[in-house]
Amino acid sequence: xxxxxxxxxxxxxxxxxxxxxxxxxxxxxxxxxxxxxxxxxxxxxxxxxxxxxxxxxxxxxxxxxxxxxxxxxxxxxxxxxxxxxxxxxxxxxxxxxxxxxxxxxxxxxxxxxxxxxxxxxxxxxxxxxxxxxxx
Length: 135
Hints:
By secondary structure, the chain is α+β, with helices and mostly antiparallel strands.
């Protein structure tokens, strides 16, 4: 059976993510197995437990992320740069450092609606995340 690298993420920019190696018939099956093993909501400690049937386990620190913002990106283990499938509610922005360095000045120079504090906050968060990826 093929082996896949499944990246489980709670945030759109992959700032809170974990990787698993999963054996499954298809990339979709590997991704769904990890999603099914992820708790819908954080526990009393504020952590979201993940426990795969083969014994792999970890926790994610969800912060203020809703349960429907969990997603997976699945890659063949022998082709780690080739995304086979993505499943879930999040859009993954998984930039390389050179790509992030090219995007950062564009984002920094973008005109933001100053009357909308939500837009400003989201753009500032995106800029911080892209700056971290650019390092």
